[in-house]
Write a structure and sequence with these properties.
single chain, 13% helix, mainly beta
Length: 209
């Protein structure tokens, strides 16, 4: 009778081909190129649930991107999930894509404050404030709001006054209906500005253009 260690070696050798067969490429599904490693779900798996009953809740760009504090109203045309409590909480809103109308209603209406950077992609109204933050307004965005930030980079439509303590940059697609108060103003050819401009003095006591 062979020794016990010899039998163990034979069993281990017999198990190796089985393990290799279970982990062969034919039996392991390939990872989709847009799915990150460690992700439990992918878009292909979640798409049937998103399109249930003929509704599609994918493809709509969030109205704002960034970390901000918001007080106001949020009209929802979609699905809300999550929970809120007295000590805080979180909500996830999947909005149904819609065609942009000429007289669209604001997706956010209230006061928005942020610290570092905020990007606006949709239609908001009210006030946007940040003493040291940078506000980026996308070409497709519309703000019916007064703005008070450090830096304002405008590519869309702003109906309201802009106060930017450092600078304001208007892209060729920008349309401003309001006054601008800033230390530095840059206007690209094609931008439209209806209003007055007040140049603030910098630390040296001079204003910049």
């Amino acid at each position: 009778m062979p020794p016990v260690n010899v039998l163990l070696r034979k069993e281990l050798k017999a198990e190796k081909p089985i393990q290799a067969e279970l982990l062969s490429k034919d039996q392991v599904p390939p990872r989709l190129p847009h799915v990150k490693s460690g992700t439990a779900q992918n878009s292909a798996a979640s798409s049937p649930a998103q399109q249930l009953n003929g509704f599609n809740f994918q493809g709509r760009v969030p109205v704002i991107v960034g970390e901000a504090t918001y007080r106001g109203s949020l009209p929802v045309d979609g699905i809300i999930s999550g929970e809120l409590s007295a000590h805080g909480g979180s909500l996830k809103v999947n909005l149904r894509p819609r065609r942009r109308a000429v007289n669209s209603t604001p997706e956010l209406n209230g006061e928005i404050s942020f610290k570092d950077m905020l990007r606006v992609n949709g239609h908001i109204a009210g006030k946007v404030r940040s003493q040291k933050g940078t506000l980026i307004i996308d070409t497709s965005a519309r703000l019916d709001a007064d703005i008070e930030v450090a830096v304002a980079m405008v590519g869309g439509v702003v109906n309201g006054d802009i106060i930017a303590y450092e600078r304001v940059e208007l892209a060729p697609s920008a349309i401003i209906n309001g006054n601008i108060t800033t230390r530095s103003l840059a206007i690209k050819p094609g931008a439209i500005f209806h209003g007055d401009c007040c140049m603030l003095k910098n630390e040296s006591g001079e204003s910049q253009h």
